[in-house]
Every structure is written in structure tokens, then in C-alpha cells.
Amino acid sequence: MARPYRLLLFDCFNTIFLAQAARTPTLLLEGRPVPSTAPLLHARLAATHPHLAVEELHRAQRAAALWARNERGPELREVSPLARFRHMLGLLGLDDPGERAVADLHEVHIQAVVNSFELPPEHRGLLEEWGQGYRLALFSNFDYAPAVIGLLQATGIKDWFDPLVISDQLGYRKPGRVAFERTLRLTGLPTEQILFVGDSLDEDVTGARAVGLDVAWVNPDGAAPPPGAPEPTYAIRHLRELRGLLA
Fold first, then answer.
1. pTM
2. Phi/psi at 171 (nearest 5 deg)?
3. Residue pLDDT tens, the chain, 247 long
4. Is CATH 3.40.630.30 what the domain over 7-18+118-246 is classified as, yes or no?
């Protein structure tokens, strides 16, 4: 039986907002499509760098993401996306075109990422229903807060969450203990009154369990956690299954 929770703390992407394959930008790599915004960035850079291959740009994006992950350190401090994009350009041997141009490239990338997600009507209805009996809060790993806030505003649900925590503004990422402890302080509630809901075993379940939170793991495929992984309190295939847990 579920505890008498007072607050439902949600992850954002792939939990509340779901990715839509038809909207996801892709690159044909070695004969198969892979998710990538490299073709969009390549189109912006082609005029000034005509010899730049889109595959090379994609590899630099991946390498820059790995660099950013390493830069976060043990406390998982958030890294600026503009720093990541400047690092990408450096890997390609391109001159830094200036803050405005780097920001424009990032804007192309981030809009493509955000636009690939949608709020299912059923999820909106569930949040509205749960908001009648619980406080709702949101805790998202995202290194550019304006994009998340813009998406929440565009779908009309931004004001449903208190607190609204984004790693860009917090300065730390999940599953880091610092990120979770600071988020818990913002809720003003003890852990036993909070249920965390998220899709990532590594970021959501691991981080939440480490600070004593109950977790509902959204696991659409029903995959078993690997050996040694923290066990979620509950495993659900769809957000609607929370109804049974909360009843």
C-alpha cells in the first residue's frame, strides 16, 4: 500500500512529455537513422564551412556531450550548453564565431529537441486530476531552463508545479545527491511525504532512492533492472497506473 503522500515530484521528459519519433531530427549514419540535430546545425554552418561533413559534426556533438559529462565532476555540477557548443567547434577546428553565433547554433539545437516532445492529452488530464489532491512539483535535468519553461508555458501547465526545479537553474544534476537534497529543501516536506516519478533508472531511481525517496519508475517496456541497480518502490508501465498506487 502506498504511503499517504502529499507531493508528487515528477521528472519532465519521457515522463510527463513524451518523445515523438516523427518529430525527432535524425541523421543517416552507416545506413541507419540515429537521433541527431547535426543536419540542422550543418545547414547553418555550410555557408562558412563548406567542407564540413555532417557526420563529422555529429561525432563532435557526441564528443562534446561526453566532455560536458566529465566536466560535471563528482557533485554533478551543471555545465553551460554554450560552453559545450564552443567545445564542439574547437573539436572541429573551427574558430569561435562569437557568443551570438554560438547562441544561434544552440537555439537551433534546443528548439529541435524540445519540439520533438509533446504532452499527451491523457497526461494533462492525469496531472489536473492529481493536482486536486496533491501538490505537484517538477525536477528536470536540462541545461537550458528557458526551453523547459517555454514548453510548460506553451502547454499551460507551468503554474501547476511548485517547486519547478531545472538543473540549469539549480546548478546541479540528477542523480547527484546535492541536486536531490536541494530540491527536497525547496519542497519543505519530509521525504516520506513525497513520491518521485521518473523514467530513468540511472538518474531518477538511483538519485531518489539514495536520499530516501519512494520512487515510481515509469518503465514502458517492463524491463528488469540490471543486477545491483537500486530497486524502485513501484514499477509502472504508464503514468495512468499511478491512480492505483495513490487510491
1. 0.94
2. 95, -5
3. 467 899 999 999 999 999 999 999 999 998 899 999 999 999 999 988 999 999 999 999 999 999 999 999 999 999 999 999 999 999 999 977 788 889 999 999 999 999 999 999 999 999 999 999 999 999 999 999 999 999 999 999 999 999 999 999 999 999 999 999 999 999 999 999 999 999 999 999 999 999 999 999 999 999 888 888 899 999 999 999 999 999 8
4. no
Rounded to an integer, what distance in angstroms lies between the CA atom of residue 163 and that of residue 184?
10
Name the residue ranges covered by the structural domains of the chain: 7-18+118-246, 25-115
CA-wise closest residue to 201 among 11, 40, 39, 4: 11
Return d(Cα 15, Cα 13) in angstroms, integer.
Answer: 5
Q: Which of 110, 128, 132, 109 is nearest to 119 (CA)?
A: 128
Cell of 240: 495512468
Helix (H), strand (E) at residue 7: strand 7-10
Nine cell digits for residue 225: 533492472
Name beta bridge partners: 184. none
| CA angle (182 as vertex; 176, 185 as ends), nearest 5 | 140
Instruction: For residue 156, list its beta bridge partners.
Output: none
DSSP 72: T
Nearest of 87, 131, 124, 122 to residue 105 by alpha carbon: 87
Nearest to residue 139, comparing CAs of 192, 90, 55, 197? 197
